[in-house]
């Protein structure tokens, strides 16, 4: 059978680029092979296998992962990825950050810019089998389905494996997509040292495992027409709302602070409230208050670390240090919260507005800022219509949402249209050996990914052919 | 000059035991020697000298103390105490807990039960020069003044040095007055092991330094007619109210709890508030709430220790453990607070009344209970009239108060009338090398102590002579 040409649709061609509603009958009704997808996913989890679940009955699927970036296990998974994608007809390129780009040619040959999907094969030291891995394996399954049905796309289609997304071994998350996007200098990334380790740098380890490519890690050297990423949600929203697919329109902004409250140590028995400067009571009020303001502003506020001194039952703490992590879909919301908390409300709290006491002081430092990311409408709409087009999925099963966590897609969206597809994970648990997504949900997500890439390819073709018969570039 | 007989006062004798208002003209106008008192206090601080103050200009007085109970330094101070009190005409008895009783005979000879003052010569490892030491040294100064003026009391007068009041070396505070009162078994006290040390027991160390007496440590073997204790306040109330003397009518009750809150770890970015069970937010609300209820009930509530897990900026804590120390002058107040907090309010807080979220659980354990102590009216009134009788002190300078911290007087009050006299300490600071009370305040306190012992002796005489010409016993 000859390759099916999916680049012809009189209906959609009339509407052009802005038509997200592609006639489903114009697209091949391609299905992913759920059994094959899951078998292959678990097969690759032999490299870097972690601890079994507490009540594991099938350790071949119920075992966590510990596949740190650029470890021997990661090398084995990479080797499998390169070999497999080559066997499926791809050209494979490795860049200077070890990012692997597997590209399947389109009808116009290898010249067009590929439409990509991708994610990462590295895991947390006590991670699970789905975070990142599912996205890459769904890409490989996409290639298998395309080969199986001899699908012909207008432009090349690629699957990318990004290096060290977790930041667990080399301590910058998403560092290699960051270098690709031109947001993190290559030298800084190469010089990153292994956490708590031997002093080995990322460059050392790339070289050691044979993944220090010669192609520059850059959106200019390896351009992308679009980037779609399938990922587990890592949160409980889809599960709670009983929806199967999340279409991600952006990643919320977050900022991390350290707040230090300085009061005065005092004997708990002999010091009346009026003579106290209780650093812990004040910190407790700040933590409770930051929650209240986050509720009011549809944001999140969390404290995960708190330490105090001197730490004695009968001594009022003189100093407390705590972390504050605030998140919201818009940077402006965080600007507002930051200003309100640090300029006004926390000041009022240390001035002991509520009960008389001695005034305390506080200082705050910004530890990390991650601006809000808005994905591009073109990719969001394509992914959404792909999800809604699946026969078994009604639109009620699809939810447009914001990602709470960062992903490589944050960096790709700086340089090309991007969106993500989320599937449910049990109890919202991730970064945990017992992270789990059902085979059905994994397959549904992979199908939405496949359909998104096909649709995007088709829309590019429509767009290009309104003004020209040639594909872009 | 012959001994002055202070046991005759026709005015007071008419009124009998219940007359606290003794005609001041009937009492010898005895003054303590401030220079001598302070010189002797600092002299004895050569044994167990600690770290100098940060801005010390005179290290001979501006140095902290580190005189752990039954150490070589403590032995040296004890030897000085025994030698000095003997030289001032006392009989010295050491009991099985190393408590030292120095007794000066009265007019009726050594047979009457003595009226005591006393405190302790041991200190915290990083303690100051006043806590405990002032009370013993003021007793020695009392003996000096009595000898100097050849004062004759109706009954014997004693000065007691209690062993290991601090509980810093052998981990039960006030352990030796506790044994004396029959509240702590001798065997348990003797078996106490040195904190973080060699395994040496209290009995070992008493024996080693030669202070394991043969007289039983017991209120029956060594009875007291009364116990007055001069002490620094260890709190800021007198200083804040600009008063020089506190007359202590009791010691507040306290209870120590450990509260454990169990929620669920969750990603701070991907978990909406409705899906969280945030153990730290809940603990923060509990801490803030326990403060509020304490304010309403004229009590104290303090958290000095808090630990959480897992302790990562972007993970909602799944477990928090914190200490809760509540104090009030009455046991009933603590009963109320305990019931309200643990049966109702904390339950409401973990049920996420305030913002929707998953329910958490909490458990609480009682770590320590110290009931309220009420001192006896006879001693309180005597000390109060003594303070008010001092020419330079108007009654505005005297405050009746409750002690926030425990003292040996808590145990003596179980077996004999007791009260305490407090003097101001700078900023309420104690258990700190920079603990400080002015020479004037120390001398004023010592004068009130001296006058209290003299007045109590006189009142006993009045009381005994209403029904009999013999002293009690």
UniProtKB/TrEMBL annotation, chains A, B:
Keywords: Hydrolase. InterPro entries: Amidase_Cbmase, Bact_exopeptidase_dim_dom, Peptidase_M20, Peptidase_M20_dimer. The lineage of its organism: Eukaryota, Fungi, Dikarya, Ascomycota, Pezizomycotina. This is Peptidase M20 dimerisation domain-containing protein. GO terms for molecular function: hydrolase activity, acting on carbon-nitrogen (but not peptide) bonds, in linear amidines. It comes from the Eukaryota. NCBIfam families: hydantase. Residues 255-341 form the Peptidase M20 dimerisation domain. SUPFAM superfamilies: Bacterial exopeptidase dimerisation domain (SSF55031), Zn-dependent exopeptidases (SSF53187). Belongs to the peptidase M20A family. The keyword Hydrolase applies.
